[in-house]
Amino acid sequence: MNGPITVSELNGQIKSLLETTFSYVYVEGEISNLTYHNSGHIYFSIKDDKSTISCVMFKGNAQYLKFRLEVGQKINISGSITVYAPRGNYQLLCQKIEPSGIGELALAYEQLKKRLQAQGYFNPEIKKSLPKYPKTIAIVTSSTGAAIQDMKKVALHRWPLTKFILIPALVQGQGAKEDIVKAIKKADSLKADILIVGRGGGSIEDLWAFNEECVAQAIYEASTPVISAVGHEVDFVISDFVADVRAATPSNAIEIALPDMNEMLQYLDELHNDYNRSFTYVLNNKIQALNHLIQSFKQNSFANKFKFIEENIKSVKEKFNQAFSQQLQNRFNDVEFLKNSFELNHPDKRIKKGYVQVTKENKIIALEDVKIDDVIDLQSTHKIVRSKVLDINSIK
């Protein structure tokens, strides 16, 4: 009977057997116990409803991972089984990870979009407005691509007064995102009026550099207003959401950034016509005002004033004469009325035979007020008779 083997020997045999037998596995599971280590390694477990297995993805492979692992996420792993002999643990060594049921790039796109939106990168309140008449525009794109040629053609016909500065950059492939970030920072330092970042159309892989977080951050931190012009109208990349303005195509970016020369010429013609109309209107108003002043001056001249005063004096004189004559006539009529009244009321004309005025103690009284034994005076125009009342009889 052979003697026992050591623990290390047993673990070594297990390691050799497992790593040889399971040199390549392709497995699906749900992420749990996720840890992103400071070293760049990723430690986690995957599980189904019955089992769990430990996993590790070292920094060398993790740096190529397009999306971020999250607990509860379902993934597909390509890798191998490895044994850590000192502890006798085995784990799944991940070489490649893909999201289950969705493309890696699509998931990475949605994750980054959601994260940047939560951080306020897309807020409309922070969007910078574009100047209406930019003097200088910096463009970050490939110097050999069709996009820059299309932009030059549109700019030449639209507004040839603006100066363009091309900051060439790789727009796809290895190192593209770093090159774009460097170009954006350089363009921003030029203090141009507008910064256009973009490229022509392509596949999602071709456009991916504009979905990188470092590119989004460079656009977000730029002090120059940024137009994102990537791909075609149907293409939406992260830079479109972060930029101040999104253009459907690079050519459309120039259309957005520059005024239209033909529209401006038409506008100048309208201004010219409006000016002529306004000038004619103002001039006619001034002529009318001047004529009014001339007429007013004539009406208020000294000769007219003297004539007006003379006519007023004449009118006052005529009115005075009329009023005086009227008053004189009124007084004459009053005198005639008093004369006639006096004549009509003269005592000589009022006295009739047998009629006298009865007075008592020099006061005129009515005959009805006389009492027996009263001493009364019977007065006519020529005589006064003092009498004593002896008897009073009523006439029925």
TrEMBL record:
GO annotation, cellular component aspect: cytoplasm; exodeoxyribonuclease VII complex
Q: Where is the protein situated, by its record's location annotation? A: Cytoplasm
Give EC number(s), comma-separated: 3.1.11.6
> Exonuclease VII large subunit C-terminal domain spans which residues?
121-359
What keywords were assigned to this record? Cytoplasm, Exonuclease, Hydrolase, Nuclease
Q: Which domain of life is it from?
A: Bacteria
Q: Name one GO biological process term.
A: DNA catabolic process
Q: Which residues form the OB-fold nucleic acid binding domain?
A: 5-98
Q: Which InterPro entries match?
A: Exonuc_VII_L, Exonuc_VII_lsu_C, OB-fold_nuc-bd_dom
An example Gene Ontology molecular-function term: nucleic acid binding
The EC category is hydrolase
Reactions catalysed, semicolon-separated, are: Exonucleolytic cleavage in either 5'- to 3'- or 3'- to 5'-direction to yield nucleoside 5'-phosphates
List the CDD domains: ExoVII_LU_OBF
Give the protein family: Belongs to the XseA family.
Return the PANTHER family for the record. EXODEOXYRIBONUCLEASE 7 LARGE SUBUNIT
Subunit? Heterooligomer composed of large and small subunits.
Question: What does the UniProt function comment say about this protein?
Answer: Bidirectionally degrades single-stranded DNA into large acid-insoluble oligonucleotides, which are then degraded further into small acid-soluble oligonucleotides.
Q: What protein does this entry describe?
A: Exodeoxyribonuclease 7 large subunit
Source organism of the structure: Candidatus Marinarcus aquaticus
Gene that produces this protein: xseA
